[in-house]
Specification:
This protein is of the alpha/beta class and about 425 residues long. The protein is built from 15 helices and 12 strands. Helix 6 crosses helix 8.
């Protein structure tokens, strides 16, 4: 089947599906397994993809193992040996705190003949929560809520989280030593920095209290006396731990490359604009609208039929009281900027299947979207001002609902130019 015989919706969702399939952990442990230990194999980890990672590891490992994984509510799956528990994301809860304590105990209990396998993916920062000495769970919950509303990029949020954690920023790796540690990562961060994924529990990193405090003030996050005291006291050296291994098994670029191949199969010219797009979702949308208009008018940077692919993690500074995450915020702003131009359609989804805290992965639109909205008395600009992309696309039956995908390589965007 070619693009000429398929609807815009079918093409956009086929591209998204191809990207999702490439981001799954299934089969990704082949030829990446460590030598079996003399002692136990202990599997620990956290994140939205961690349960499926645990299942995929078990299938490839084929030997006895034990351990504990914490994932988001609704993102668990069946495993043979490894215990899966679920907790709250993006604001941590008691279940996450209890799981983090148990994981830290497993790490500390590993001996020199044991192997500790660490499975980390996006979401681990909230799910693997253990406040530094002097803080409570309520303190961490308030901080996470403030971070999410600030509009700060994921790198900044994770730096702050590390500075207030008893487990992140390499502190878990220190607990594992002298046992051998092997970490497998699914990246949800621009640049695929291992220390940023899940705030790097097994990636040693020297802490800089002054820098963290400066970032908090820069993004309007209140620095109380208590927070400042904890940040200054919770410092760690950034020395590497001998015998560690780190493997990246899925990334945003892998998803985009799979969508690129699918587009070529459909006879559409693909152009990957980047896998690390950051910034305000609505501002990024204006830039992407300009690129799409140029492709439609001048055949640059690619001639139609073409599809502009991108990934990364945009942010939303919450000013309204509406529903929706960064994917629908981007898409609504894009629709407004394109002004219903014929021949241009788009999809924007979060690859974990959850855009913000709603039940959708994202949404899609075609050139008829603004005309349909007007016919129903819907004003896109008003929805955008209220951060209410979910309600807008829901009213027009344009939401993309996948349920939990059990992976997470962050945003997936495709803009189709006929």
């Amino acid at each position: 089947m070619t693009s000429a015989t398929q609807s815009d919706r079918d093409i956009l969702l086929a591209l998204f599906d191809a990207g999702l399939a490439a981001a799954l952990p299934d089969g990704k442990f082949k030829d990446r397994l460590p030598a079996p230990p003399k002692g136990r194999t202990i599997v620990i980890g956290a994140g939205k993809a961690s349960a499926r990672m645990a299942r995929a590891f078990e299938e490839e490992w084929g030997r006895p193992c034990e351990g504990l994984i914490v994932t988001r509510y609704g993102h668990g799956c069946e495993t043979r040996h490894i215990e899966i528990v679920e907790a709250s994301h993006p604001v941590p809860d008691q279940a996450g705190l209890d799981a983090a304590r148990r994981i830290l105990e497993l790490a500390k209990g590993a001996g020199p003949d044991d192997l500790v396998v660490c499975l980390m993916s996006g979401g681990a920062s909230s799910l693997l929560t253990m406040p530094a000495e002097g803080l409570t769970l309520a303190d961490k919950q308030a901080l996470n809520s403030a971070l999410l509303k600030s509009g700060a990029p994921i790198g900044v949020m994770n730096q702050v989280r590390k500075s207030l954690s008893a487990i992140k920023g390499g502190r878990l790796a220190a607990a594992i030593a002298p046992a051998r540690a092997v970490t497998y990562l699914i990246s949800d961060v621009p640049g695929d920095d291992p220390g940023t994924i899940g705030s790097g529990p097994t990636i040693p990193e020297a802490s800089d209290p002054q820098q963290v405090l400066g970032l908090m003030r820069q993004w309007g996050i209140e620095v109380t006396d208590k927070l400042e005291q904890v940040i200054r006291a919770n410092t760690v050296p950034g020395d590497a731990i001998p015998g560690q291994e780190v493997h990246m098994i899925a990334t945003p670029l892998m998803a985009l490359k799979a969508a690129e191949a699918k587009a070529r199969e459909l006879g559409i010219t693909p152009l990957i604009l980047g896998d690390a797009i950051e910034g305000e979702a609505r501002e990024a949308a204006i830039v992407f609208a300009g690129i799409a208009n140029c492709a439609a008018s001048h055949g640059l940077p690619a001639a139609a039929p073409c599809v502009l692919l991108s990934g990364g993690e945009t942010t939303v500074t919450v000013r309204g009281k509406g529903r929706g995450g960064r994917s629908v915020e981007f898409l609504l702003a894009l629709a407004v900027a394109l002004k219903g131009r014929a021949g241009i359609s788009a999809v924007s989804c979060d690859t974990d299947g959850v855009d913000g805290t709603e039940d959708n992965a994202g949404a899609w639109f075609d050139a008829a979207i603004l005309e349909e909205a007007a016919a129903r008395g819907l004003k896109p600009a008003d929805f955008l001002a209220n951060n209410d992309g979910y309600s807008f696309f829901s009213a027009l039956d344009r939401l993309v609902i996948t349920g939990p995908t059990l992976t997470n390589v962050n945003d997936f965007r495709a803009i189709l130019v006929r």
